[in-house]
Amino acid sequence: MSLLREAEKCLANQKTCASLNAFITPLQQSGPWRERVREAESRREKGTPKSPLDGRLIAIKDNICTRDMPTTCASKMLESYTSPFNATVVQLLENAGAIVAGKTNMDEFGMGSHSMYSHFGPVVNLTECGKEKVSAGGSSGGSAVAVATEQCYAALGTDTGGSVRLPAAYTGTVGFKPSYGFLSRFGVVAYANSLDTVGIHGSNISTIRNIFHTLNHYDHHDPTSHLPPTRARLASYAHPTSRPLRIGVPTEYNINELSPPVRAAWHRTLAHLQSTGATIHPVSLPTTEAALAAYYVLAPAEASSNLSRYDGIRFGTRNPKLPDNAGPGGYLYAHTRGRGFGKEVQRRILLGTLSLSADAMENYFLQAQRVRARVRDDFDQVFARGNPFIKGDLESGVVGGAKKGLEDGVDVLVAPTAAGRSPTINEVQGMGEVEGYVGDVFTVPASLAGLPAVSVPVRVEGEGMHEVGGRGSVGMQIIGQVGDDEVVLRVGEVVEGMDGKGT
Question: Where is the Amidase domain positioned along the sequence (predicted)?
Answer without folding.
Answer: 34-489
